[in-house]
Amino acid sequence: MNRTVAGKTIADLVFRAAEAYGDRPAARWQSEPDTWEQFTYRELAERVDEFGSGLIELGLDVGDRVAVLASTRPDWSVAHLAVVAAGGVHVSVYPTNSPEECAWVVGNSEARGIVCENADQVAKIVAVRDRLPALEWIVVLDGDSTEAIPAAEIRRRGRERDGEELRRRSAAVDPTDPYVFMYTSGTTGPPKGCVLSHGNYRAIMTANDSLDVLDGITSDKDMVLYLFLPLAHAFALLFQLMAFDRGGVIAYWGGDTTRIVGEVMAVKPTHLPSVPRVFEKVYTLAVGSKPVEEQERILAAAALGVRVRDMEQAGEPVPAQLREAFDAAEAALFQGVRALFGGNLDLAITGAAPIAKEILEFFYGCGVPLMEGFGMTETSTGATVNTVRNHRFGTVGRPLPGIEARIAEDGELLIKGGNVFQGYYRMDDASFGAVTDGWLHTGDLASIDEDGYVSIVGRKKDIIVTSGGKNLTPANLENDLKRSPWISQAVMYGDRRPYPVVLVTLDPETVLPWAQAQGLPQSVAELSRHPMVIELVQQAVDAANAKLAQPEQVKKVAIADRDLAQETGELTPTLKIKRKIVGENFADVFDSLYAD
C-alpha cells in the first residue's frame, strides 16, 4: 500500500485518501456490543462530502470556527473532516466538559456553530447560550432536539448541493491557515486555545513517518488503530490523521471503559495510543496483584526478555542458555501478556503524563512494544519519542526528525520545529507557552544526555518548595505509589510547608475484592479508615520513600474517602491531576497532616 497520501494540508486528506485507498476499510465501530460494522475510504469521503456541503448550505464561511462536542466515534471524524474541508476551523470540546467549561471554549473561540452528539450535550450549550453571542446554530448527531438541527437534515442539504464548492474550498486551504483550536486541559486556570495550522499537523505527521522509515519499523501489516482516547485531545487526533493518511482502519471503542481490554483483544490492533493509567492497571493485574515471590519471578522473566530483545535489535547473537530461558518465559508469561493486547501490536505508545520505567520494561520484555513519548498541545502532539529500535527507558526518547530540543539556563526544555503552534487565541502569555526566536518554552524541567535522549524532571509549576527552601519534584514518588495495586492516585503536597506529605486514593477495582475476601466493609470510604488498609498503604509509602533522599521523603500520608474525578474538578479529561483543585478540595485533610 502507499506509505501516505502526503498532502500539504488536512483539508483535502479525506479526498486524497479515497483516491488512494478506495474500498479499503476506513472505520469500524459497534452498532451494538460485539457487533462490528465498517465503512470504506470511498464511503468516508462521501459522508464528508454530504456533511461538509450541508454546512456550506447552512452558511459556513471560510475561516469560521465550528466546535464539535462528542465522544470518540466515526461521526466525530466525519464532522471534523467536513468542517476543515469546507475551509472552517475545528474547535475541540471534551464530551465530559460541564456547561461552564463548554461556555469558555465555545465563547473564547467565537465559534459560529457547534456539532453535538446528543440531546444531553445540546442541553449543555442551551444552558449557556446567552453567553455565546457568536453562536448561530447547533447540529445534533443522534436523536432530536428542539434547539438543534438534526445531522440527517444537514446531510440532506448536502446531497442536494453540488459538491464542487467543497472540493474547491479544500484545495484552496494553505498550510499556514488555522486548522484546529485545541484547548489545553487547564491544570492551572482556564484552558488556552492553541491555534494549530494545517502545516503544524502536517509537519508532525511527516516527522512520525520519517522516523518509522529511519528506524526500520515499517510493517507489511495493514494499520489497525484502536482508538478510545478523546478525539478532542491532540494525542488521539494525531493518530486518527496518521491512520487515514496511511490507509489504516480505525476501530472505535464502544464507549464502556470496562470493555476496553476485551475490545482490544477482539480488534487485534497494530497501534494502540493510551494514557499511562490503562497500562498501569494492566501491569497491576499482571504483576502487582500477585504474591511477592511470584512478582519477583515475573519481573525477573521480563528483565530477561528486555535483555534478549535488546540483543536482537542490536543484531547480536543470543547465547543458547539465554535463548532457552527466553523460550520458557515466552510460553509461561510473554504470550499471555501479548494476548491482552490482541497479539498483533507494532506499537503501543503512552504520553500525556509520566509512566514508571519498570512498567515500560515489563511490557517491552514481554514483547508488547510500549514506548513513551513527550509532547504538548503546543507541539501538535509530539516532540520526542522512544522507538523499538532506539529507546532508553526512563527517558521520553529523542526528538523526532526535523525537531530540535535544548535546555535553557534554568533547566526548562525548549522545542523548535514546524510543529510548534501559532500562539493562544485571544490569550497572550509571556512565560509558559511563549515562543522566542522559534523556541517554545514548554514549562517542563528536563535534561538531555550525550545521545540526545530527553528526561523530564518535572513541571516548573509543580515543583514544591518547602518552608526550609528544599525544592522537591513530586512525579517520582507519585509514580511509585501508583504502581501499588491498592492505590489509584497520589498527590504530594508541601509547598511552603515544613515537610512534604501525600494524599492517596484507593483503587476500588482491587481493594474491594480484597476487602471482601478479608470480610471487611465494601465501602471505599470505610476502608480508607480501616487499620488493615492503612497498613497496606503505609507499606507502599515506605517502599517509595526508601528510594528518595531523606529531605524528599513524605512524612505523613492521608487516604481519601473517594477517588479523584473529573466531575469534582480534580482531573482533566486525560486524567492529569489539577493540583490546585486537589489542594482546595482536600484542604482540611492536608491541614490535619500538619496539625501537630
TrEMBL record:
Tell me which Pfam families the record gives: AMP-binding (PF00501), AMP-binding_C_3 (PF23562)
Q: What are the protein's UniProt keywords?
A: Fatty acid metabolism, Ligase, Lipid metabolism, Membrane, Transmembrane, Transmembrane helix
Top-rank lineage group of the source organism: Bacteria
Q: Does the keyword Ligase apply?
A: yes
Q: Where do the TM regions start and end?
A: 223-244
- Transmembrane helix is among the record's keywords: yes
Q: Where is the AMP-dependent synthetase/ligase domain?
A: 15-425
Q: Which SUPFAM superfamilies match?
A: Acetyl-CoA synthetase-like (SSF56801)
* Homology family: Belongs to the ATP-dependent AMP-binding enzyme family.
- Supply the name of the protein: Acyl-CoA synthetase
